[in-house]
Each structure stands twice: as C-alpha cells, then as structure tokens.
Model the fold of this input.
Amino acid sequence: MENREWKAIIEGLLFAAGDEGLSVKELSEITELSKQEVQMFVNEMMMEWKLDQRGIQMVQVAKVYQLTTLAEHNKYFEKLASAPTRSQLSRAALETLAIIAYRQPITRLEIEEIRGVKTDRTVQLLQRKGLVRETGRAEGPGRPILLGTTKEFLEYFGLNRLEDLPAPDSLFNWQEMEQERHELFERLGVEKV
Done:
C-alpha cells in the first residue's frame, strides 16, 4: 500500500475514534504497521496539514492522537454551536419532539414510557438545537425536570403558536402503530404492557 493510503486510513481511524483518540500503539495494532511507521506517518500528516492550512489538525493529548479544529477558527464554531440549525432531524428526534410538543410539560421518563426507549441523547440534541427547553420541575419523588418546546420550535416548523399544531390524529395512524407494536411483542414472545 502507498504512503498516501496509509495516511488516509490513519485519518479515518482518528476520525472514527472521536474525542477518545488513538495511541501510536493502538494505530499500530489496527494497521499492522510498526510503531515507527505509524509515528512517521502521523508526524508527516501533522506537518502536511499545517502547510496546507487545513481546517482540522492532529494533536497529541495524554499520549493519544485526536483530530481537532483550529483554535483560530473558534468564532465560527461558536456561531455554529449557538445557532439552531435547520438540518434534518432523525426519526427518533422527530418522534421525541412530537411527544414533547403535544404533551408538554412532560418529563423525560414519561417520554420514554411512550416511546419505549431511552431518550437522554435525543432530548439533549433537541435542547442543543434550541427546540426544547426545561420548563420547571414536576411534583413528586425526585422532582423530575419538565420539558417543553421553545420559540425556535415554532419558527422551525413555521407556527405562530402551539395551537396551530395539526391534530395528532391527522398525523399518526395510532391503530396501525399499536398493531405493529402488538405483532412485535408476539414475535419476541413478550407480554404486552
């Protein structure tokens, strides 16, 4: 394999590893290259990326290499992070958002009971996008956080007020969803709750 291909593989591995990064030893084990070869490729990549003025860089933190953005571009990343994006929402995010919109104020546990799956990450995503916010605390044990939609939610969907949401029955075929759920429980041999 050519050097360029090995560098592409290392770059992809570091991207896939995310914030955890990878050490030279781990990269060596995965690629089956020697540690010296991996270190040589990493050093070359760091230099090439700097000379090419790329938007990302490779840094070493606590003996692992990570891909990061350049500090001098921080103001642009801050704008990106603070602006609610109009990027497509996943089906899980849309389902969770619909439950919050129609049942608000609602707790995370109530959302999970309706969806049947954990929703921590989905709710966090919706909060980061500015579509969902904490509206208070429920009475009862632990005083769980209540969630509701935001002004940005209304803007995102082109609504003037929550009352402009379409009737839930016009959106969902509840009977069909319940039938699919029942069939799934039967196939799994689980009693329906």
Q: What stands out?
A: The mean pLDDT is 85. The first strand starts at residue 56 and ends at 61.
